[in-house]
Protein 1
Amino acid sequence: MAPITDNVVDLMSHKIQRLTPPTRHAVTLAACVGHRFDLHTLAIVSEQTPEATAVDLQPAIDAGLLLLTSDTATVGTATYTFFARPGAAGRLCADC
């Protein structure tokens, strides 16, 4: 797999900077969890309910940063993946 170029990370960073603080926080925590993550795990890490976490993630989905990858709309069982290739998400989390 080709290395992730800085312009991909720059683009993702620019999109993240345009998000609201709660969404930026959720995306940063998600990046620390991994390229793919589930809502239940992220809710635990963010110390919120799955419903509140899903609300925080929606703008990132709308911005094209995340994809909802599960077939279910059941809150708590949803899974997500970062739109960029694996590794780009991890580079966004300096504390991982």
Note: Strands lie at 36-38, 66-68, 79-82.
Protein 2
Amino acid sequence: MYSEFFTNSDKLDSSAPLTAAPLTVAPLTVAPLTVAPLTVAPLTVAPLTVAPLTVAPLTVAPLTVASLTVASLTAAPLTVAPLTVAPLTVAPLTEFPRIPSTDDYTACPEYFTNFQQFATSGTLQLPVQYSSQIDSFNLLFFINGIYDILCAISILRIIHIPILGTLHLSVIKKTYNQNSMFSRVLAYWLLTYGIMRISGNNHIIAYSYFIEAMFFGNEYIQHNSVYPLSAGFIVISSMLLGIKAYFYM
């Protein structure tokens, strides 16, 4: 086939122009699109029929409570054994007119020797005068504690005793004691060492006096917040009472 093509091509006039026939394209005709109308059938809902609800009556069986029988309580008679108190035997107290001194030893050595034996014996009995001194100071500490408690509750206005409510505050300069919170804190502190002084424990009593002396001494020296005469009296008396309670009671 190829050879025929080349053979026929030799017969063509290579100088003649190549003419192409015009291309005729027939017009494209599109048929119109016809859409049929959409018909929706009506929705029919059948009526809902609810059967009536029948509730059977509730029958409650009667509650029967068995009768409660309480056995009678029989109390055995209380027998109290008779109280027997052993007779109290008090050893006789050897009385001395006073605590002997070195002058007594010079004047009467036997008297001083007897007192030493008395004081170092297994059954120590203090002379009447010395015992009364101890009792007097214990009473003084107790009364001082009650006084501090009364001052405290007067400042707190639990009771109304004007003089007791102002005694401790009058030692402090007005610049400081006008604060009501400070007054109440001072009252609680007074109440604390008032209770310490009625405790009967000599070391606790002594600590309360040492703390009071330290408070007023420090306030005067470091802050100058207390009146010097009143604070000085409190410091000296508290130190003396504290030493007495700690070392000599």
Note: The chain has nine helices and no strands.
Protein 3
Amino acid sequence: MSTRFARSCLALFFAVATAFTPNREPTQAAQVVIDPRIEAAAAATQELHSLRFNAETTVKIGASGEPTRAFSGRGAYQDEARAHLIAEPVGFPRSETIAIGSIVWTMGEDGDWSQGVQNTPTFIPFSFAFNLRAQAEYLSNLIASQAGSQTVLTGDIDVNSAIADKSPTVYNIGADYGGGLEFGTEIVSASITIAIENAQNYLRSIETNLTIRVPEGVEGVPPGLVTIVTNLRLSNFNDPTVSVDPPV
């Protein structure tokens, strides 16, 4: 497993779950019209008052290798910028953070909490909506189906255009695995599956499936095919039992 990739998974988890303003100039891709079903899901999701979420990334080396878990994370959000994040990257210590407004508590490896301050409050629903819209800029061949009470959209991701635009989508789906883009990683295929709740248009899950061909020279990664699957699942929408409190 690439050490650089494991670290990027940890950083990505906190970036995806933390509100931020994208530091990039508008591009032609950024002006495209997003599929109205995805825009409706983003608009509904960013207004949520509370939720829980789980994230996982698996990596398969080679065409016939077995997928292995590279990262898992989970958390909760409550109104007034209250967030609880737990990240478990394989090969690195477990990380736990609680943020309430501008105050942040982080658990150290010794199990003790340290307190700090953040400039931007943590609005997780907005961050999920932002990243959904960012990925939607590069989707094509969308096919819709019904699965119980959900609409499921499947399609392709134009990763090369996302790379050219320096979109956060590149890192959200793992395209820079091990820092391979600077060495000439080839994008073989990329697809996405989005599940949206029919009743209120909330985002239920996003799964991306990316296959790349890694060249020689990438740290900790043998050259050849690598398949990276990321999965984000949301639940407990506006559930009054979701509570985020300061550490005891």
Note: The domain at 3-235 is CATH 2.50.20 (outer membrane lipoprotein receptor (LolB), chain A).
Protein 4
Amino acid sequence: MKKKLQEKLQRALLAAKGICEEAEQAGRDFTDEERVKVAGYLNEATAVKDELKKLEGDDEFRRQLEALGMLAEGAKGRENDAKGRESAKGRIRGWL
């Protein structure tokens, strides 16, 4: 998921940059259409970057839990979610 988001961020930024470079090479300001497109790409990039920050925060929580031994393989009382992944509730119970 993280890699796909990083790729999406890269595409949005490159698209905005391409429009900027095109206007610069032509020696002109953005057209109204270009302004709308650049704004859209920047909004998309901001949203993706926010999502990446959330994922990084999740990763940090996992590292902290792991440091406390909550994600250890032998934890007791584990519970799985619908997809078979261990739930946070199960990890916490295993730690207690």
Note: The first helix runs from residue 2 to 25.
